[in-house]
Automatic annotation (TrEMBL):
InterPro entries: Bact_Lucif_Oxidored, Luciferase-like_dom, Luciferase-like_sf. Residues 40-344 form the Luciferase-like domain. This is LLM class flavin-dependent oxidoreductase. Pfam families: Bac_luciferase (PF00296).
Length: 394
């Protein structure tokens, strides 16, 4: 099992009346940046980088950044900048860029160049994630949602060829046209950095990821729904004649570890509710605009209710497996249950949940590293994560 420390970098200072859904239907796209305080932004960015660097010191297998645009719940419009900042202040963890939103990038060749640079800056510790981007991000960048998948596929093919083919060569496609493709530098890892792709149950994505033998990463959803996704990915791989390595299946999930079950539930509730009822509260037409999903994918989404958490209580979020909360033993047991049921080999754990304080985030990160991760380590294969006494503070 590999454990990766994931961060959303949220802006927690939402208005007191943000629960007024009519006034604030979403923290994204239509939520005015007039609510953003630049002084607080400076503090948050440095705090969040400190938390990612601390995870590296504690022995997490990877630290994970991602891309969101015009959104208060994720202040990383450029994950490559964050990866570059982390490359010089981390030394052991892989850096997962999860990922670059290809359809809304006007210049995918620039993505190829930046990822190749990051591969060198990290000395080959980079994992490159590719995503389509969320519906509102297409609106924000004036890209037709109906072209999202074809733009994604072509941008991916161009980037992969640029990494693996000696140039210069010409590219004339449906969406992109380059007379010269000749990236300097080429990636350090051969033939290119590992690639990870988040999925929300789209059959097209499952098949595409299986065809390319990439890592399939879940988004936040009930365990029963995630099981259908992972099973669909394994089925797509089986149809192609192979069984995916469990390390190519990754569960993304928020986790809160307290001293015991009672205190964990008491402390976590506010922050879990902030994440699901404020941060991830979205207007469906903005998230899934017409043309963004195929009819088959949309039917599956509507059946799963993925992303509809406004009426879901904290207790239901825990029960349905959208979040893991408890003392160390309960968290270990819950992860073991999920691993047996879902068959994943990696976790993207969100330990900085919602509006958690720096102190609580640090404690959560430490307890998970010291009392959860070692349980899943195989002594013969990997050393245990360093103890807190051996670990310098950031």
């Amino acid at each position: 099992m590999k454990f990766n420390f994931f961060h959303l970098m949220p802006y927690p200072y939402l208005p007191d009346d943000f629960d007024d859904v009519e006034k604030y239907p979403s923290p994204s796209l239509t939520f005015s940046n007039g609510h953003f305080d630049p002084a607080k932004g400076v503090e948050l960015y440095h705090r969040y980088l400190d938390e990612l660097e601390y995870a590296d010191q504690l022995g997490y297998d990877g630290v994970v950044v991602n891309e969101h645009h015009q959104s208060a719940y994720g202040m990383m419009p450029s994950p490559n900048i964050m990866a570059a900042a982390l490359s010089r202040r981390t030394s052991r963890s892989r850096i997962l860029v999860l990922g670059n939103a290809l359809p809304i990038r006007g210049n995918p060749l620039r993505v190829a160049e930046e990822i190749a640079m990051l591969d060198h800056l990290t000395n080959g510790r980079l994992v490159s994630g590719f995503v389509r981007g969320i519906g509102w991000e297409h609106f924000a960048h004036s890209v037709s949602p109906a072209e999202s998948r074809s733009r994604f596929n072509e941008a991916h093919d161009l980037i992969k060829k640029a990494w693996t083919t000696e140039g210069p060569f010409e590219w004339i496609g449906e969406h992109y046209e380059y007379r010269y493709v000749n990236v300097w530098p080429r990636p350090l890892q051969s033939p290119h950095p590992p690639i990870a792709v988040p999925g929300a149950g789209s059959p097209e994505t499952m098949r595409w990821v299986a065809e390319n033998r990439y890592m399939y990463v879940s988004v936040y959803a009930p365990t029963s729904v995630v099981k259908t996704w992972f099973d669909g990915y394994r089925k797509a791989a089986a149809d192609l004649g192979y069984e995916p390595d469990p390390e190519n299946i990754a569960l993304a999930i928020p986790v809160f570890v307290g001293e015991n079950d009672a205190s964990a539930h008491r402390e976590a509730k506010q922050h879990v509710e902030w994440l699901f009822k404020r941060g991830l509260r979205q207007s469906s037409p903005l998230v899934f605009p017409p043309g963004y999903m195929s009819p088959q994918a949309l039917r599956g989404l509507l059946r799963s209710r993925t992303g509809s958490y406004g009426d879901t209580s904290f207790e239901e979020l825990v029960e349905q497996g959208l979040v893991i909360v408890g003392g160390p033993e309960s968290v270990r047991n819950r992860i073991e249950e999920f691993r047996e049921e879902l068959g994943f080999g990696q976790m993207m754990v969100l330990l900085a949940i919602g509006d958690m304080s720096p102190e609580l985030t640090r404690r959560n990160t430490e307890i998970f590293a010291g009392e959860v991760i070692p349980h899943f380590r195989k002594a013969a294969a990997q050393p245990e994560a360093p103890t807190l006494a051996q670990t310098p503070a950031p």
